[in-house]
Design brief:
- The structure is a single chain.
- It is built from seven helices and no strands.
- It is about 85% helix and about 0% strand.
- Helix 1 (about 5-20) packs parallel to helix 7, helix 3 packs antiparallel against helix 4 and helix 3 (about 50-65) runs parallel beside helix 5 (about 95-110).
- The chain is mostly helical.
- The model has no long low-confidence stretch (mean pLDDT about 85).
- It is globular.
Length: about 170
């Protein structure tokens, strides 16, 4: 296995561990580790648009821990779009940009179940990208990320439904 694919597999493991966290803060901290490894993976594969997307993602995740500012989210989306259009070599290179927009809005504006639904949507866009560029670690990562996100969503909804409901007495 070459170094690029190894970094992809490590990114996949970090993402799975992150997404299984019930705490939004621990989820985001784990995603920081995942994003660094993912960026290394794409750099070694020679995919500059994906690398830039990862660098922006690192800033996005870190900033979203400290603020929910729509202005901050908009600035990151504009930066993502500018970089993606400057570096894109084909239409598939736009998929990381689309994922970046979805993930930025999700990380800055949502929490709990809505946050995880946004992460799932972004992950599906990355999965399509990775299939096209034949990033085997990335394919595994996003497939596992999607499945573990669905598992986490299912357990969160189940726990939410098991909470005792308050009775209303008239």
């Amino acid at each position: 296995m070459d170094l690029a694919q190894m970094a992809g597999w490590l990114a996949a493991a970090a993402a799975i561990i992150a997404i299984l966290q019930k705490s939004d803060l621990r989820l985001k901290q784990g995603l920081i580790i995942h994003t660094v490894l993912y960026g290394i993976h794409f750099a070694l594969l020679g995919l500059p648009t994906a690398v830039v997307s990862c660098v922006i993602a690192l800033a996005r995740i870190t900033l979203s821990i400290y603020t929910r500012s729509l202005l901050c989210a908009a600035a990151l989306i504009i930066i993502s779009a500018a970089m993606a259009f400057a570096l894109s070599r084909s239409t598939v290179d736009i998929l990381p940009l689309a994922a970046s927009v979805v993930l930025t809005l999700s990380l800055f504006r949502f929490d709990g179940i809505k946050l995880r639904l946004g992460l799932l949507a972004g992950s599906i866009l990355w999965l399509i990208h990775n299939v096209y560029v034949q990033s085997w670690g990335g394919i595994c990562l996003e497939t596992c990320f999607c499945l573990s996100t669905l598992w986490g969503l299912w357990t969160m909804v189940r726990e939410q439904n098991e909470k005792p409901k308050k009775e209303i007495c008239l």
